[in-house]
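Action item from last week, closing it out:
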Amino acid sequence: MGGIISCAVLLKRLSPSLETGVSIDIRGHFDGVWGIFQGVQPVNSVRQMLARVRETVDRHIWIREWGMSFVGNGSTSIGGLLRSQHVATQANIALLSAADNDDYSFVDQNFQPESLQTWGKRGSVINVEMRRYRESVLAGLVEDGYTIIDASDADDDETGAVIESVKAASVELYAVECQAIADSPTISNAELKKLQDTRAKTKTERHQQRKAELSRRYEVDVTPELVEKDDDGWYPQLRMHYYLTLGREFLTNRDAKRAASQLEAGENSIWKPDFNKGQLLPAVLLLENLNLLQFLTPEVQLRGSDEKMLEFKALAVQHRHVIKNYLNVSISEKLTSIAIAQKLLAKIDLKLDYVGRLGKRENRECVYRFVPPNDERDSIFGQWLNRDEAFQNELVSVINNISTTTPVIDTTPQDITQTLTPEESPTVQGWKGLKLKMRLGLDSVGKFYQQLVSKVGEAIGVADGEPYWNAYLGQWQVWVNFAHGCKSVVCDWLVAV
């Protein structure tokens, strides 16, 4: 196919484009084809989209210089891509076995090796092209017979005004779209299922479906701001933050359910890329071990030269390959400790705010601090927590009238009484916690917790160190050793009286 390609700088992301399965053969109707490619689609998908209109008309496109969607860990070699999947699969199964206290040795990890080899070959090609996205797309279009004309070479004095006009129109149209989705009527689960199964939808139906899906995903009222944030990839960031904090105790059950579903569908075999993508436990454990939450204390000023910042950088650099494999974040020695913290905090959509350069003139240093975002994630987390607790209660074996009194080593004259109520019974996934009623201030709670041992049936939990105050969540957390591994327990059951 021939034609002219004009590269224009159009920055606003539009809705997903058609790629395959559609052939527009009508003649004399379209004056041109317009495309904006920000690096989400593979190179071949860009070329496919531009070829949907069969008539030889001009194509006007803007292409990002580099892509954003990498396969696997982003490796550009087949061996590197496949090796990362093998290592991740073994680690995921091992971690899941320890956390779930179950045997996963029956899992067939060698499912369709020829397909996995093909996936590795194609994935490495896509990753290479993503690193040179614009160059790769244009080279492919030249092969398809297009003539490339760079917009910067075009003799048009009005180009700048046109660009600004298009950008303004794009922003306005997108705002209208987000508002229309938020204003759509609420539909039932049955109606949503029907829309999801319908291939040809009206604009109204698409808006209704999108609102219903967002409502069920976030479990809060859908607003235009929520629609835009979801378009920008907010959900996986928020989900990671939730399971790193309030939802930590439900993570094992979540990953185990996904693994069981895949094993059932695959008859005890797993497709490694899909299996690894569905497991969050390794990424959350990695962020826990890096102690990322230490930076989320408001009003505390942070400098790159702080001892804890230097220790954090050393730990991150030491484990940079693991971080790349599980979080897809590149860490190097050249980065400052603040820069590394910012990259990892971006995985949960948080950041450190710049305060200024403080200190004496000859020794001034950039200072940062954490400011909690006003994005209503706390409300969403509360809804998710209620949902997970409700589901968990369905799996709980209700134990009535059980109470234990456990002596605590190194205590003061004040006494500590522990009471286990039915709604706080141990779950299938392990120990949820005991209600502690303490007759002392929270400031001194740590020393009473060092040797605490709790026994409920077969579940044994030994506190590993003192509880630590999570200022961002506004509550205490503690590491607890179980027979099947160590986990962080959110102390929503810790009460001072």
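Closing note: The radius of gyration is 27 Å.
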